[in-house]
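ENTRY TYPE: paired fold submission
RECORD: A
CONTENT: sequence, then structure tokens
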Amino acid sequence: MTVVVASVPTAVTLYSTPFGKTSFNIFPTNQVNIATATTTGGSWLSFQAPPSTPGFTFGTPYTINATPQPGMASGTYTGTVILTGSSNANDNQTIAVTLVVTDNPIIQVNNSALLISGAQGGPKVSVPITLVNIGEGNLSIGNANVTSSTADFLSATAANTNSIVVTADPGQLTPGLYTGTVSVTSNAANSAQVAIPVEFTVTASGQPTISQGGIVNIATFLADSIPQGGIAAFGDQFSATGSFYTNTTAPPLARQLGNVQVLVNGAAAPLYYVSRQQINFQMPYDLQAGQSTTVQVVSNNVSGNIRSVQITSAAPRILVWPSNVAQGWYGIIVNSDGSVSLPTTAGVQAFRSRPSKPLETITIYCIGLGQTNPGAVSGAPATAVPLEQVSGISVSVGSLPAVAAITPAFAGLTPTAVGLYQVNVTLPNNVPIGGSVPISLNANNVMATSPT
């Protein structure tokens, strides 16, 4: 569990399993000296200073680590972190650190605001949030309670044992920014810490709007690095309520669906899917890594807002089955006999499923491996002759970092598909056995992981 703390706090409470580790980052304005001390539990508290060269830069964190020691039983332990030597008196603080060692579930807390957008007079916007348990035992969600800057625009409900659904209703709100907080009760040891900030942007009726942080990758729906060939955008008023559009013919992909276009640096991009609040599109392969790229939606000749994203050469992401389909977080991986790699108790409808075997060649489906050789064409189906391949790919099966990297037999675009990559790899004889074994995909030193 990692907590990011702006500036220097006076007190922090951390949670860990008996054999785990937790940390938090602090950001003093100047270089400081740090000393740690514990009053109970032994030497479980330590710190890591930023590199001494090229010199201190504000924004580079000091990391405070809390690591339960062998024999520490479940309970509460205390210590202090003392900062001295800064020319800014606000940096010179004594931080009271409380470590709770527990056998109960622990929710991984994300301090980032949930960004939602909607249109004035438009439909409610619902966003699912999965709460990750990094502790022990089974997580169980009780209630999801809300507070908001404007009454009644925000609501939340527990969807199942580890997720909630947050809903914002633009109703007749005037265009502007509205804020709120969703607090979750659960059986987690740190349940009281789970307060999710929400920012709801209401736009004027009629204008297509890409949400802040709304340009995401399609595997995780997170606004992280976007490679050539990456896809997806979220917002509102892309098309009429209840309407959606897909390609009705074989590739190449259309660059306009339902009178909707996505302009990337001013040029229409290939489209997979269009609805009121989601567009799946392809980032052109001719974009340069490191380039700042603009994205804009035009719907029925009405131009929307412009968002900028940074393009990277590769951002590998293993595609996963929806948790409500595969009853767990499993990669979309196909065995040598055409069955899908899942526990036999988690079969996906219309597919045969079974666990993968040692020495078997499996196919991992993914996105974000970037440009190929020979070069892929934006919106066009991948060719079978010649195969459009990617170099610099390796696969590891098992918990990092102790497992060896495997060179795949093939890595590249799936023939006849658009923007879909596959990695064919033979599992080693000593592959770990279990219902959920981590698998890691490395593309030119950029890592993606998924259980399988």
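RECORD: B
CONTENT: sequence, then structure tokens
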Amino acid sequence: MVDLISNSNDNSTKYSVAQSLGKIDPGNENAINALVDLIRNSNNYFTKKYAVQSLGEIAVGNENAINALVDLIRNSNHDDTKSSAAYSLREILKNKHMPKVVAILTSYLSVETYNYNPSQFENCYGIIWKCAQNMTYPEFYQAWHQQNNSTI
């Protein structure tokens, strides 16, 4: 199935396979990497949507998947895609990745973001709130003030 994603030129095949991978292959590194590649390289909305959803089901704690979802939240032009990525990120995020995610996303919790892109603000707020609930206060405080724009 991973080869089918990589070699097919048909978008409906790609998003069907992406959707299926989320159901049948949890934790498989090759499947996760194929889905990350789809997210980064596809211009098809449905292909990205199903790849994002599948990552939320099979990529718990995977740094490559976490980075791809954070990038999508930060850079996608579609609010729906950002929301799906935020949901999947909350599903796969592990405590060890939370400080970096907080540091990256805090810059989106500004009045400017709230006024001009409220869905971006809400998506980042939801992720940061999950992190705050699972981190110690000193860890969260340090991550909040780190303001890192790099990857995980």
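NOTES ON RECORD B: Residues 2-146 form a domain with the Leucine-rich Repeat Variant fold (CATH 1.25.10.10). Residues 21 and 32 are 9 Å apart (CA to CA).
STATUS: closed
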